[in-house]
Automatic annotation (TrEMBL):
Source organism superkingdom: Bacteria
Alphabetized GO MF terms: 2-polyprenyl-6-hydroxyphenol methylase activity; 3-demethylubiquinol 3-O-methyltransferase activity; polyprenyldihydroxybenzoate methyltransferase activity
Keyword Methyltransferase in annotation: yes
Keywords noted in UniProt: Methyltransferase, S-adenosyl-L-methionine, Transferase, Ubiquinone biosynthesis
Entries under InterPro entries matching the protein: SAM-dependent_MTases_sf (IPR029063), UbiG_MeTrfase (IPR010233)
EC number assigned by the record: 2.1.1.222, 2.1.1.64
Protein name: Ubiquinone biosynthesis O-methyltransferase
Pathway(s): Cofactor biosynthesis; ubiquinone biosynthesis
Residues reported in the UniProt entry to bind S-adenosyl-L-methionine: 41, 60, 81, 125
Length: 240
């Protein structure tokens, strides 16, 4: 019954991150942007949903950068991913850092079948632009949120400015990430993501952009600029 769900992954996308997995926790590697934006991401989540004591699922956790940060803020965190090498790196780093995270190799859709309405918070950051059917992932994530709980998503907008900044500048000019990391056609417009969220029964409560300044080489949150990287916070209505 769950067989079709297993197909919502792109082997080429997984291979990209498998190849780079050993450098996941090197703050000067290809993953530097993830390290740089992580304090902003975890701060955004914590401000809205208060992580301490919450049961959290991190979908597409990779090497565990966000997962560990949420665990260190007092959350009970499970991280899932379909890449074996990143999960191995995540587990090893957890042993070094002391962050308590449970990792599992499983798709969001399969996890949703096993654990419906089981988590106070579900996060899915920088992941939906790497799967064939992002709407399916959003639906699965929403299914796992408890009534009254929260879903946090981040991705890349699809427009000429995002192509210029995320592909031409970040990959080819500034070399912030490896060339070929992203495919512009898979970027997701905020209106599209908002529709998938609504169709999944959640309410979008906040949206903000992650803006990069090439002069200071720093990121900041700007709710008025979601042209390139952006995050949204959604909430599942309480049961009546």
């Amino acid at each position: 019954m769950s067989q079709p769900n297993r197909l919502n992954l792109d082997p080429a996308e997984i291979a990209k991150f498998e190849e780079l997995a050993s450098r996941w926790w090197d703050r000067n590697s290809e993953f530097k942007p993830l390290h740089d934006i992580n304090p902003l991401r975890v701060g955004f989540i914590d401000r809205i949903a208060q992580l301490a004591g919450k049961r959290v699922l991190d979908v597409g956790c990779g090497g565990g950068i966000l997962s560990e940060s949420m665990a260190l803020r007092g959350a009970e965190v499970t991280g899932i991913d379909m890449g074996e090498a990143p999960l191995k790196v995540a587990k090893l780093h957890g042993l070094e850092s002391g962050a308590q995270v449970r990792y599992q190799r499983i798709t969001a859709e399969e996890m949703a079948l096993e654990h419906p309405e089981s988590f106070d918070i579900v996060t899915c950051m920088e992941m939906i632009e790497h799967v064939p059917d992002p709407a399916s992932v959003v639906k699965a994530c929403a299914q796992m949120v408890k009534p009254g709980g929260y879903l946090f998503l981040s991705t890349l907008n699809r427009n000429p400015k995002s192509y210029l900044f995320a592909i031409l500048a970040a990959e080819r000019l500034l070399k912030l990430v490896p060339q070929g990391t992203h495919e512009f056609s898979k970027f997701v417009k905020p209106a599209e993501l908002a529709e998938w969220v609504r169709n999944s029964g959640l309410n979008l409560i906040e949206m903000t952009g992650l803006v990069y300044n090439p002069l200071t080489r720093e990121y900041r949150l700007n709710p008025r600029d979601v042209d390139v990287n952006y995050m949204i916070a959604c909430q599942k209505p309480e049961e009546m």
